[in-house]
Write a structure and sequence with these properties.
globular; 6 strands; about 30% helix; alpha+beta
Length: about 110
Amino acid sequence: MTQNRDTAIAELLARFPLSRVSEAFHDDMLGVLPPVHVRGMPGFLVSEAVAEDVHAQFVEHRGRFYGAYVALRRPETWITHAGTVAFDLGHPDPPVLDWYPDAADGQ
């Protein structure tokens, strides 16, 4: 059962991997529900879970905005400042999302 649960969570996380998002998207999520701030986690979580402990996390770093689905109880999935730097190095001109990529009007 744990393997199936882990697979399901991995598939859900893959639906919104670390991505650049627009400032408007970031700000919309900051204001849609009370944000959740977790000690040691940059940015904030949307308080309503996508499923179980999977939430959307949004981070501003160096004037850019990022988002992803993360598993709250798995810190290795969280967006970090180091992760945003690595993302930018590997994606010099990424698309900037205006909404969730798994939504019909995602990009």
